[in-house]
Every structure is written in structure tokens, then in C-alpha cells.
Design a protein that fits this description.
The complex is a heterodimer. By secondary structure, chain A is an alpha/beta fold. Chain A contains 10 helices and 8 strands. An 8-stranded mixed β-sheet of chain A has the order 1-2-4-3-5-6-7-8, with helices on both faces. Classes of the chains: A alpha/beta, B alpha+beta.
């Protein structure tokens, strides 16, 4: 065989989320400490393909990345056609806990990006004992909106094209062109209204500032890593969030934007590997 | 540097921003990738650089007119306006964070997008690419 086969395995898991049956697609690689990864709004777990194929990570961590329902290869639940998709803080938290339980992940490390980074803060406030450590990428408790999400889903504007065009400005100008266009390709493939429905959590339902006082990184370590070229979650947003959580660790990553694991994996791993080493060293 | 700060306020900023803006028609028309993707864009629009407005006539992607104002009773569909120092930073080979994207600039009020936004949003990526053409590749 001449092809290089990645050590990544993709499977489907049937589980109930808040009492509703779901078929969730997930990919995994490696062994050791479970590291559960959450993709950005309007995208899917392909954003973590470089991490899943990084032997320095998978030597010590079982990396698991799933497509949220409505995203990638995870179907919406039966009957989805009768309503608009809207992600909520409660629904997103239920989903994550269902995946942890369903896949029997023992106190995993949870790493989420963008909306995934935001929900990490909710997990930190409400469920710290179920996780070994929490990593928020491009995460803040609140961010100022920078466009009207009504443009994301209307019949006279191509939804995939406009979603991709909007997020193109969130990628560092230093990112390799191939990685940039791969991210944008994923955004062009999202279902109608899905990116907008994810952002309901971001914009309407998910201001987590009132919960920050409940977060205690001594119970579950919290790391925030934010790219300097992210105009959505700006470095100042993450720094402000971290300043309100004594014990949280925060790092601003030069020459990275809103999709660090996907836009420049080599640059990102230089920031992530020391964090993973520290988590492993605490065992 | 944050987008609120002013990266380049030297007195000739206005003239240099205008000179850079006036390169857009030739650069955009000579770029086959932009022309391929802009073919649905037929509109008259404004590019504002500080105190100066440029009226752009674009037909099926090709920029057929690029006139420096002021104008009397000239219609336009949408307008993209920023101050001259913001454009100069935007057109640097590697702009500072927040100056690298027109919507990032707009978030902090350094750039304004006005008028009928439908053709702007429906052609957003290629319009971003057209206004970025004066940026030298890093």
C-alpha cells in the first residue's frame, strides 16, 4: 500500500441528548487522557484533523472530535424540519455532557474554539468536577457583535458564500493559503441557517459574564488561548475574561486568528503542546 | 496596535491613500481570479478614502469607471468609507491586527459600510478582495 493512512478513525454513536435520540459522528486518534474537542460555529470537527494526526499529541492523549448535530456528518434529530435551529447554552452543555457520558470519557480535557471556547466557560462554572482541565480557544464570556447575522440565511444571498466571506476576515493574514481556503470550504458546506443558529448562543443566549464568579481554576485548570488576528474574540476580550477568573491562564498567540488549530496547525501546536504537557504533568 | 489608534497620521496620508486607491481598477481588472468570481457584480458604488470619494462603475465584475469626486447627484448603491490612515494600514503587506479586514475595521468604527447592502453582502468575498488589491503581498 502506497497511500499514507492517517491514524484517525471515524464512527457514529447513537445517544440521547436531552431525551432526544441523536446519531453523532466523531473521530478519534491516540490513547491516554481523553481530549474532547469542540469545533467553531457553522463548521465541523474537520477543523481538528491536524491535531488528530499529530503523534506528539496522540502519544499521550486520546483525541476525540465530534460534529455537533446539524453539522458535518451528524444529522439533525428526526423532526428538525419543523423549526429553526437555535443553539442555547443549556442545549450545548447537555450535548457535551451526553457525549462525555455516551463515549465513556473519564474526566476528559475539554478544548473548544469560538462558541466551543465560550461553552467551556459554562462548563467551568457548572461542571468542573467532570473534567480534568479546560482549554478555551478564542474564548471570552462576552464579545461585541461585528455584523448582523440576519445576512447569514436569506433566499437572495448565497448562505455558504456569505458565511465563508464573513469568517475569512477572522483568519490571520499570515496563515498558509491552503489552510485558509480549507476553513472557508467547510463554511461553504454548512446547512442553511446552521451558522446563524449557532450564533444564537453567542449573541442572544450566551452572555456568561454573570457566571464568571463561580469559576475556580483550582478545581479544574482553565487555559485561554487567543489569536492576535481574531476580530471576533479579540485578545482584549479574552484578557478581560481571564482577569475576572483568578487562577485562569491566558496567552495571546501571535500570527493566529479565530481558527488556530485549522489555519496554522504548526504555529498553534507550539502554544498547545506546553499546555498539554502541564495537564499531563499534573496527573 | 488596536484599530482605535492611528497608525499613520503623517500629513501626506491623504495623498498616499488616494494614490493607492487609484490602483484598484487596473489591479482588479488584471486579476483573472477576481474577474471570475466578480462576474455577478454589476453596481455603481463608492470607495471613500478620507475626504475623497471615488465612484466605481462595475459591470459583470469589470471596473469600467473609477472617478474621483466630488460629484453632483451621482447615484450609488453601496459605499465603503474609511479614513486615509486606516486604508494605509489596511494596504500594508502585513497590516496590524484589526486593520486586516474591512469588517474588523468596521467593528471599531474605522470603516463604514452604507447604502443598499444586498449587492455588497451577496458579493462580499470578491469585494473584500477588490479593495485589498493595493496591498502588496507579504
Amino acid at each position: 500500500m502506497t497511500a499514507r493512512i492517517e491514524p484517525v478513525i471515524g464512527r457514529y454513536a447513537h445517544m440521547e441528548v436531552a431525551g432526544v435520540p441523536h446519531r453523532i459522528y466523531f473521530e478519534e486518534a491516540g490513547q491516554g487522557i481523553p481530549l474532547l474537542c469542540l469545533h467553531t460555529a457553522g463548521a465541523d470537527a474537520r477543523q481538528f484533523r491536524h491535531l488528530l494526526d499529530d503523534s506528539e499529541v496522540t502519544e499521550h492523549f486520546r483525541v476525540v472530535a465530534f460534529d455537533m448535530p446539524w453539522h458535518g456528518k451528524s444529522n439533525p434529530p428526526d423532526g428538525f424540519e419543523a423549526r429553526d435551529y437555535r443553539l442555547t447554552t443549556e442545549g450545548y452543555t447537555d450535548l457535551i455532557l451526553a457525549v462525555v457520558r455516551g463515549l465513556d470519557l473519564d474526566r476528559p480535557v475539554l478544548m473548544g474554539c469560538s462558541i466551543g471556547g465560550r461553552i467551556v466557560l459554562n462548563i467551568a462554572a457548572l461542571h468542573p468536577d467532570r473534567f480534568r482541565a479546560l482549554i478555551g480557544l478564542e474564548a471570552a464570556a462576552f464579545q461585541q457583535p461585528w455584523y448582523d447575522t440576519a445576512w447569514l440565511n436569506r433566499p437572495d444571498v448565497h448562505g455558504g458564500e456569505v458565511c465563508a466571506a464573513l469568517v475569512s476576515g477572522l483568519i490571520s493574514p499570515t496563515a498558509p493559503a491552503a489552510r485558509r481556503h480549507e476553513i472557508l470550504w467547510h463554511y461553504r458546506q454548512g446547512g442553511p441557517g446552521v451558522f446563524q443558529g449557532d450564533l444564537h448562543f453567542y449573541r442572544v443566549d450566551g452572555d456568561l459574564r454573570p457566571k464568571l464568579g463561580r469559576i475556580d481554576p483550582a478545581r479544574c485548570p482553565l487555559y485561554l488561548l487567543t489569536g492576535e488576528y481574531d476580530p471576533s474574540c479579540e485578545p482584549a476580550d479574552s484578557l478581560e475574561t481571564a482577569a475576572r477568573i483568578p487562577g485562569a491562564q491566558v496567552e495571546i498567540m501571535p500570527n493566529l486568528g479565530h481558527f488556530p488549530m485549522a489555519e496554522d496547525p504548526d504555529r498553534f501546536r507550539r502554544h498547545l503542546l506546553p499546555v498539554l504537557d502541564e495537564i499531563r504533568g499534573a496527573e | 496596535m488596536s484599530p482605535q489608534s492611528s497608525p499613520d497620521e503623517r500629513p501626506d496620508a491623504q495623498a498616499r491613500a488616494e494614490a493607492a486607491a487609484m490602483r484598484i481598477p487596473d489591479l482588479a481588472n488584471a486579476d483573472p481570479d477576481i474577474q471570475r468570481r466578480a462576474r455577478w457584480l454589476t453596481a455603481e458604488w463608492l470607495l471613500g478614502a478620507g475626504e475623497t470619494q471615488f465612484h466605481v462603475t462595475q459591470r459583470e465584475g469589470r471596473i469600467e469607471g473609477f472617478q474621483r469626486g466630488p460629484f453632483l447627484m451621482r447615484p450609488w448603491t453601496f459605499a465603503i468609507r474609511a479614513d486615509a490612515p486606516a486604508w494605509l494600514e489596511f494596504w500594508r503587506p502585513l497590516p496590524a491586527p484589526g486593520f486586516h479586514d474591512i469588517l474588523a475595521l468596521s467593528k471599531h468604527g474605522r470603516l463604514r459600510i452604507e447604502g443598499d447592502l444586498h449587492p455588497f453582502m451577496a458579493n462580499l468575498q470578491v469585494i473584500k478582495d477588490i479593495v485589498t488589491t493595493p496591498r502588496a503581498r507579504p
